Each structure stands twice: as C-alpha cells, then as structure tokens.
Amino acid sequence: MKKLMILFLLVALAALSACGTSEDNGSTGEGNGNEESSDSSDMRTYETENGEEVEVPDEPERIVVLSSYAGNVLELDGNIVGVDSWSKMNPNFESQLEGVEEVSADNLEKIIELDPDLIVGLASTENVDQLNEIAPTVTYTYGELGYLEQHVEIGKLLGKEEEAQTWVDEFKADAQETGEQIKEEIGEDATVTVIENFEKELYVFGDNWARGTEILYQEMGLKMPEKVKEMAMEPGFYAISPEVLPEYAGDYIIFSKNSDTETSFEQTETYQSIPAVENGNVFEADAKKFYFNDAISLQHQLDFFKEKFLGEE
Strand, coil or helix: what is 44? Predict the structure, then answer.
C-alpha cells in the first residue's frame, strides 16, 4: 500500500509540474504558443563518481541534502529546502537552515512535498531509486575525494565550480600560513591529538575524519603521536578506553566534546596527570560544530585553531 501511495504521489507531482509549466508559458507570452517546456535547455549532464551520467538542473533552485554536505551547498549559496537531522542540529548552519525541513531518505512523502529539483546524498543513502523518481539524485562516497576536492565537486554539481575552487585556494593558503605560525608558537616537533567522546566511547582520529583533522595534519603539517598514527590513520578513527588515553595523548589535545554524554573520565587521576592536561594544552570544541568537513565547518575549525593556538579572536 505504501508503494502504491508513493507511486500515486509521484504521478500527481509530475502532472502538476507539467500543468504549471504550460500555464507559465501562456501567462508570460513567451515562445510561439506551443506547449513544449523549455526545461531541457536548463539541464546539463553531470558525471557521477561511478561514471554514470545524470541530467541535473543547470542552476538548481530547490535542493534536498541527505548527507554531510549541507555546508558545502550553503557556502555556494545553494537554496536548501530539506536537510538531514545531523546537519539540522549543527550550530554552524543554524541561522541558514532556519525554517528548513528535516528529512530522511525513508520519508519519501515529505521529500515529494518539498518539490526538490536536486537531491544530494551519500553512497550509503537508502531508497536512491525512489529518490531519483522525485528529482535527479547524486551521491558521493565519503572519503573517495579529498576533503577540498569534495567542495569543488559539489561546486561542479551546482554549476559553481569556479566559486568553489576560489574558496578552496583561499582556504588552503590561510590554513597553511596559520600552520606555520602555530609551529613557530608550539615548536616543530610538538604533537597534537584529536579526541571525541560519543555516548560511552572515546575516540582518537587520523588525518581525514573531520573534527579539524584535515586542517591540523594535512594543511598545517602538525605532527600526530605515533600511537594514534599506528591505530587511527588507516581506519580514520579508533575507539579507546579512557585508561589508555595517556598512550595516545600528544603535547596538545583537541577535545571535540559532547557535553551531553559521558565525560566523567575527565575527573580521574589518569586524565588529570596527562601532561597536556597539566599544562593547560587541552582545547575543548563543541563536537556538533566539529563533526563535518564541509566548507562552513572547516572555516569554523580554522578560526578555532587560530584562537586557541595563537590567541586570535
């Protein structure tokens, strides 16, 4: 029954869209009086990561994002009408997503109601075939592209590749210059560990799993403790117990902190005796602002590092 309802809604939406196009052509007096839509001239071919060709709007106007790429779309002035729950709760996007519907891939009816002309998701997004019936749907495999290449690729999808590349060039230059300043401040050999508490687990991170790791290790060239490199580089993250945190702790710790989950380990003697803690070199960040590596989140993370390492406001 649910499948039949979805099919009915899709057909009804297509019919309404066709009627709207015909009425628009008649009311504006454009064209030569025929009923043929001009939509085809507003579409272009986009090649996905799998080499498949998808017809997407030349300038999408109503975008649904079902992944961690909301910040990339927003940075490029894309109009988001529906967004996933993780992006919706991200404080970095709060003002720009005010009034935007929270959606998921299993709520096709709500997505249909939003009338998107483009849907962006992850390769793991469910119901992609059904989503494609609603609007052109493009998915990406997380980590398949470099974190800055991903922004350029989304710029290409939105018809704003040049703007995306300009942002990337400026960001890289800023991050690398900041990295040199930080190394002058803390020393070339100083190590930095990124940790995060989530529910009852504690994690350390490699150099490509958001939380500012791409900036610290890839762009700034700061050093990672050997134990973190051994365990977290290949998978991207690694779960540890608080008791072994001293083995992974660098001279500086970036603590992506979920204040609403378990943090009692901070009160233990084991944690308090870590040199970075004793020296006041633990920088606490709001985990919700550090989860992603989109353009807006990256800028927030870079500003955070400038403030904490260099005292810049």
Answer: strand
- State which of 100, 125, 142 marks the end of a domain: 142
Cα separation, 313 vs 309, whole angstroms: 11
pLDDT, the chain, mean? 89
**Residue 106: is it exposed, middle or buried by C-beta count within 10 angstroms (0-12/13-18/19+)?**
exposed
3-class SS of residue 21: helix
In which domain, by residue range, is 127 found? 57-142
Give the orientation angle of helix 147-157 with respect to helix 161-186, to 10 degrees: 160
Within a domain: 82: yes
Provide the pLDDT for residue 41. 52
Please state the separation of Cα 53 from the chain's center in Å: 23
Cβ of 161: how many Cβ atoms within 10 Å?
15
Tens-digit pLDDT profile for residues 155-179: 999 999 999 999 999 999 999 999 9
What is the model's pLDDT at position 30?
36
pLDDT value at residue 200: 85
Buried b / exposed e along 170-201 (16+ C-beta atoms within 10 A)? ebeebbeebbeebbeebeeebbbbbbbbeeee
pTM reported for the whole predicted model: 0.85
Cβ 116 vs Cβ 135: under 8 Å: yes
CATH number at residue 301: 3.40.50.1980
* 51 assigned to some structural domain: no
- State pLDDT tens for residues 6-48: 333 333 333 333 333 333 433 333 333 333 333 445 999 999 9
297 is a domain residue:
yes
Indicate the burial class of 152 (C-beta count within 10 angstroms; 0-12, 13-18, 19 or more): buried
The DSSP secondary-structure symbol of 196 reads: E
Last residue of a domain, one of 96, 117, 142: 142
125 and 195 housed in the same domain: no
Nearest residue to 214 via CA among 266, 164, 155, 172: 172
Q: Judge if 207 and 107 occupy the same domain.
A: no
